[in-house]
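Quarterly update from the structural biology core.
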Amino acid sequence: MSQIICSAISVGILSGIWGFISSPLGLLCWVGFVGCTSYYASGGKKEGLKKSIICNMTGVLWAMMIIITSEHFGSSVAGAVMTGIFSFVMCAQSKFKLLSFIPGTFCGSFSTFGAGGDWKLVIVSLLCGAALGYFSDMGGIWLHRIYQPSSQKS
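Predicted structure, tokenized:
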């Protein structure tokens, strides 16, 4: 069985489980899928997991800064200005290798806005999603090792 089919099986099974358990656990299913997508988009494996989680979390932080400062100044103009400033920050932080996954930062940010600023729920859901991505990736690798023809095993 090919690596992509093994990965697809693993992703399908674990995504189905996530879809089933996330809401009863009080988590945001869609934010979990954002975390999972972020994991894969960051390149996966342990390095991608670390980069995805850290960038997602900084995105949550910057979104909360936008929300808090906008509420403090109380105008839509302030919200637009803060959005511009912190969008700059979200891109500029990529000068640091560990913070270089800009899409992951925006994933954390838009998830926070989409959840109405419920940052605690977003953080837990994103972390679960990152775990979903990691374990589905590792599950695909494991399945492939089991099902590859013995002539191809090293």
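The chain has a mean pLDDT of 94.
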